[in-house]
Design a protein that fits this description.
By secondary structure, the chain is mainly α. The chain has helices at about 5-25, 30-45, 50-55, 60-70.
Length: about 90
């Protein structure tokens, strides 16, 4: 096999890996990292007095994500207990 053929094979293999990775979506670890970052940003906004953030921030990233989904659906009654709403 000559160098030209090997290069073509490598390029095809890389293109396949890129397609599979794109079609599969993010890995669980990437999603968890994103959720932690989102929770931290919303928590900071709530600490700074942002009204929306105070409504949706939860005790942990999972609760914050669930609250955002409930908020987007207009289902305010399903919001998890947001720490900032407790007096």
């Amino acid at each position: 096999m000559d160098e030209h053929t090997r290069k073509g094979n490598r390029e095809r293999q890389q293109a396949y890996r890129d397609r599979v990775r794109r079609d599969r979506g993010p890995a669980a670890g990437e999603l968890a990292t994103s959720l932690r970052g989102m929770h931290a940003a919303i928590r900071k906004a709530a600490d700074d007095g942002d009204a929306w953030a105070m409504q949706v921030v939860g005790h942990n990233p999972r609760e914050t994500a669930e609250n955002i989904v409930a908020y987007a659906r207009g289902d305010r009654g399903r919001l998890c207990s947001a720490p900032f709403l407790k007096l």
